[in-house]
Amino acid sequence: MNIASVHPLPPHIHYLNGHLCMEECSLEALAREHGTPLFVYSQAAMLNALGSYQRSLAGREHLICYAMKANSTLGILQTLVRAGCGLDIVSGGELERALAAGVAPERIIFSGVGKTRHEMRRALAVGIGCFNVESRAELDVLDSVAQEADTRAPVSIRVNPNVDAKTHPYISTGLKGNKFGIAHEDVVATYRHAAQCRGLRVVGIDCHIGSQITQTGPYLDAMDRILDLVQAIESAGVPIAHIDFGGGLGIDYNGDTPPAADQLWQALLDKLETRGFGDRKILLEPGRSLVGNAGVCVTEVLYLKPGEQKNFLIVDAAMNDLPRPAMYEAFHRIVPVAPRQDAPATWDVVGPVCESGDWLGRDRTLAVQAGDLLAVLSAGAYCMSMASNYNTRGRAAELLVQGEQVTVIRQRETAADQLRLESLLP
Ligand code: LLP
């Protein structure tokens, strides 16, 4: 069976002589050498995804700040930073990772509803480009922290535009009922206040309406609302140098058809022109759309456990490695690394963790035997970065491939690594 013809594989992943390859590397050879579960990423896939954004914004003042929560491994950050990205961070830990990856501090923006004073101090000390502030209370704390440090914090206020991103409720962030951003009707007053704070310097406005968005409409609606606000804020005498439209563009997990980044941005830029904001500096915070389809997780089939009601395929990757199915009932395609010609059966693909929620795929048609390798696709975003040590399972290793070149960007975590921070009672 030609699996690829049923549903096209993500770019840079293909079968060659019956074996799944990423770029010019056989995933079977990589798994045999490095063990499983194993994350493997294609550098070309990431650079292509970034290229689509860069093409549409070429010739215009802009900064693409990769939302590093999607995958914050240093080698991934370096890849995108060297290709021209800034970074969108959400914690002090991400700030240290960002700096370790070599990004210029002024190309870092700091999002998130709960920044601590300590995180603010450190971010001010290194000189980040912008704090995306999410509440009046946070604005006032940042003002006082900056004054104590005898500096002015560059700020943007995250607006909650109250538009429905039409995505999973857990990853929809631009509606009134969400904890994110400042309500549309309070925004102008908040900017007036910010402009009077001695520790703040207003530089922009931002929004982020959700994640895995597959339609252009919600973005256009959000842009209209933001532009209305920019007009009102500037009429109140506060200039807005940049507009940050956040991230959220979806990827194809299972036949999803999000617009390509350059298509989406063509539509958005047309609106910007039409509304007279064509010269404004644009910031973006894409995460998933840059890395999601660049990664796979290779896992070995440990046991076949056929049953009366369900057949279980027990693999060595689990919810601690790939939490998205357990958390959001998310769908990831699962394909054999070396397809067999045998008759397939229907399986629930589950991990070894002691939870019924530990599943990676349900009712999948696969012809497999114990010892076979499977590839969980679209595993570049929100998999490794959300991985945990539940059941004292070490986190997987990660490889980056470029053509036939392979770099280990994270070693497999050992039990000793996990025990290092703990102490026995005296
Ligand atoms: N900017 C802000 C302020 C965000 O909160 C996020 C994601 C992004 C940018 C990047 O969004 P992206 O382009 O990746 O959609 N764990 C969930 C996704 C959570 C997204 C959180 N915020 C998942 O696995 O689907």
Overview of the molecule:
By secondary structure, this protein is an alpha/beta fold. It has two domains: 3-42 and 292-413, Beta Barrel (Lyase, Ornithine Decarboxylase, Chain A, domain 1), CATH 2.40.37; 112-284, TIM Barrel (Alpha-Beta Barrel). The chain has 13 helices and 21 strands. Strands 4, 14, 15, 16, 17, 18, 19, 20 and 21 form a nine-stranded mixed β-sheet that branches. An eight-stranded parallel β-barrel has the order 5-6-7-8-9-11-12-13, surrounded by five helices. A hairpin with a 2-residue loop joins strand 1 and strand 2 (19-22). Helix 6 (117-126) crosses helix 7 (136-148). It is globular, with a radius of gyration of 23 Å. The N and C termini lie far apart (61 Å). The chain binds ligand LLP. Residues 67, 70, 88, 111, 171, 208, 211-212, 246-249, 285-289, 324, 328, 382 line the site of ligand LLP.
What's this entry about, in short?
This protein is of the alpha/beta class and 426 residues long.
List the helices and strands and how they pair.
Layout: H1 3-6, E1 13-16, E2 19-22, E3 25-26, H2 27-34, E4 38-42, H3 43-57, E5 62-67, H4 74-82, E6 86-89, H5 92-100, E7 108-110, H6 117-126, E8 130-133, H7 136-148, E9 153-160, E10 182-183, H8 187-196, E11 200-206, H9 217-235, E12 242-244, H10 261-274, E13 281-284, H11 288-291, E14 295-305, E15 312-315, H12 324-328, E16 334-336, E17 345-350, E18 359-366, E19 373-376, E20 397-402, E21 405-410, H13 415-419
The structure holds ligand LLP.
